[in-house]
């Protein structure tokens, strides 16, 4: 399962021990498999059928998602080496995506005027995971003039919310289950029904995006994905937001997803007036943090997770690749100072309101007193909550990479954006 190999500074990252009840479920699954039994089929046909049965709906809209669903389900069966808990989670995630597609199409069919909703000048937060994107997203969501998708409505977007909507409790229950499967995730990332949610969790409805590739070891799906046009993915993105925006006060969307920077051209075809916020942090802090986080997500689903040094090298290379692409996009006019702003993690953490004021100024937005007050209230609450949580623990030595060599490789990136070293 895991070797005792060591990196340049010590033992490689290993996941925490599973809760006993999770291990017992997985042991049962292994015993059944040894007897020739496999619970919970993951074939596309049965998943489509069950989604229709559970919702009473039949129209999935455009069929451009079917190819990705087929590649994904084959990869999950043939490559992912899922535990029984992994099969439960995979089936739940795919069914939720399919049911959301059915409800989105039902919304447009019942209320064709939804298609007239304009998603105006959305603010798109992107950059490497663990670089401050979540803090930035939650701060912007405090502005009364802005709106972020919430955890519950990403999971179950239609019909519009009602007072004491039972879907809120259902979404919180799903989060609690996640925490019980891997309690250490509570210190890694905030999830909740009423918290801002990143767009990855509804872009996965297209089955043509990277969510599943981050949660499972499925190389054939990753290879297939690398050759795909993402235009249908972001067209669905707009369709989803139109449903959430319908019958709601018109506000500016603040949206978060690491891939916004990497797929800027595809995004701008759908949202030509979009504003990009690109977060930056010391790569030698991001790489081990992401290794621990993604490794834990995979460990929830399989006994076999990533090759740690290979994953760390890939993460390291992403900084260089993204840096070169940003420079190229400025040279071609895709990015310019009117639609793009760099956000440094250390400023966001050390002087958050001053950092926010600079962002608003650069993007030509008004930073009102009410927005500032609400952001300060959020910061005060977050500080109290963090004191009651154990910190996310990780170290660069667990990546298997050479720290001095990596620091030198990322020097140009850090120098260009003014990113201080944290280790």
Any overview of this molecule?
The chain is mainly α and 423 residues long. It has one domain (20-417): Rossmann fold (3-Layer(aba) Sandwich). Helix content is 55%, strand content 5%. It has 20 helices and 5 strands. It has helices at residues 20-34, 44-55, 66-78, 84-110, 133-141, 151-155, 166-181, 200-203, 211-215, 219-226, 231-245, 259-262, 264-270, 283-299, 308-331, 345-350, 352-362, 369-387, 403-409, 411-417; strands at residues 123-127, 146-147, 252-256, 275-280, 340-344. It has a 5-stranded parallel sheet. Helix 11 (231-245) crosses helix 13 and helix 14 packs across helix 15. Residues 1-9 have low confidence and may be disordered.
Task: Please summarize what this structure is.
With 423 residues, this protein is mostly helical. It is 55% helix and 5% strand.
